[in-house]
Design a protein that fits this description.
The complex is a heterodimer of chains A (120) and B (234). Chain A is built from five helices and no strands. Chain A has 120 residues and is mainly alpha-helical. Chain B is built from nine helices and seven strands. The chains are: A mainly alpha (120), B alpha+beta (234).
Chain lengths: 120, 234
């Protein structure tokens, strides 16, 4: 058993399942938004659409899914390339900084998304 | 004349590895790559590589031929040579000991991790532990692995994390014992695999399937392990 404290759920299976479930949610959301965009809505239509609770919930779900999906994916990328093995002890520092920055960006987008969606 | 470019590195005399160009007269025959390597060795006895059975059974002569891993003894020139040029390199990702010989310690350490032997804590029967033909059939496509390391050294996930990702060869053997009806250590075996590296570094790109000289499918075995982990945890 290899230990890894920075992965999303500490468990490979959990991360793997999370990435697949969130991918399905994101696919459904982007198909939905894509269909809306193709129908060419104006401001009034957009506003009416996003005033409905289910659209806000769906958007929030997609936003959280994007955060989890991005964390699992970028965590895999960072632990592939920014490692002690590849670049000496600097690798660990670069990786932790990259993960920290990724975390801050995801957190900011999530809070900002809540603000936009629910107009707080 | 076949143009061969061969990877040379002798740590005792060379500051760094280099490619050496050699011309080999194949007499127009579709030889195996190992035959060409033997001809090169006849010209220059300092060339070093591993070989033994010369018929794809021992798994010693895994090398990288024109960018593709395989066993030199069972790979015909017509399968790999393009524009009369053959580039021979050691298996990628493992430390080079000399020329085409790589240090397989990391590969074997991962193999050791999966405890590749039958474990059964029930009392041994008088003669043998029986298996039905159906149970035995489940091991087909798993037990044939000869540990040549062609698959694991063609896998980017194994290149980046050879100390943490078990790799296709190790995981194929892991599933070989998970699938064995006579093995009773399934739970303990699975418990050791549920981390983000051991199994889940596999992203299913199937380089392993592409290069396996025995035609085995480690990606499918990894999928079975994943399903067993999922069933166990949900």
């Amino acid at each position: 058993m290899v230990t890894a404290v920075t992965s999303l759920g500490r468990s490979g299976l959990y991360d793997w399942l999370m990435q697949r479930v969130t991918a399905v949610i994101l696919l459904a959301y982007f198909l939905f938004i894509g269909a809306v965009v193709i129908s060419g809505p104006g401001y009034a239509e957009w506003s009416a659409l996003f005033s409905q609770t289910w659209v806000r919930v769906f958007s929030m779900l997609a936003l959280l899914s994007l955060g989890a999906h991005a964390w699992v994916g970028l965590w895999a990328v960072f632990t592939d390339y920014f490692t002690e093995r590849m670049m000496g002890s600097a690798g660990n520092v670069i990786r932790l900084v990259a993960q920290f920055v990724t975390g801050i960006i995801m957190f900011t987008y999530t809070v900002w998304g809540i603000q936009i969606l629910w107009g707080l | 004349m076949l143009q061969v470019s061969i990877y040379r590195y002798n740590p005792e005399t060379d500051a760094e590895p280099y490619m050496q160009d050699v011309q080999v007269d194949t007499g127009g025959k579709d030889l195996m790559v190992l035959d060409v390597m033997e001809m090169i060795k006849a010209q220059d006895t300092t060339v070093v590589y591993r070989r033994s059975c010369r018929e794809g059974v021992c798994g010693s002569d895994g090398v990288n031929m024109n960018g593709v891993n395989g066993l030199a003894c069972v790979t015909a020139l017509s399968k790999v040579v393009k524009n009369n040029k053959l580039v021979l390199r050691p298996l990628p990702g493992l430390p080079v000991i000399r020329d085409l010989v790589v240090d397989m310690s990391l590969f074997y350490a991962q193999y050791e991790k999966v405890q590749p032997y039958l474990q059964n804590d029930t009392p041994a029967p008088a003669i043998e532990r029986l298996q039905s033909p159906e149970e035995r059939e489940k091991l087909d496509g798993l037990y044939e692995c000869i540990l040549c390391a062609c698959c694991s050294t063609s896998c980017p996930s194994f290149w980046w994390n050879p100390d943490r990702f078990i790799g296709p060869a190790g995981l194929l053997q892991s599933y070989r014992f998970l699938a064995d009806s006579r093995d009773t250590a399934t739970e303990a075996r699975l418990a050791k695999l549920d981390d983000p590296f051991s199994v889940f570094r596999c992203h299913g790109i199937q380089n392993c399937v592409n290069v396996c000289p025995k035609g085995l499918n480690p990606t499918r075995a990894i999928g079975h392990i994943r399903n067993m982990l999922l069933t166990r945890a949900t």
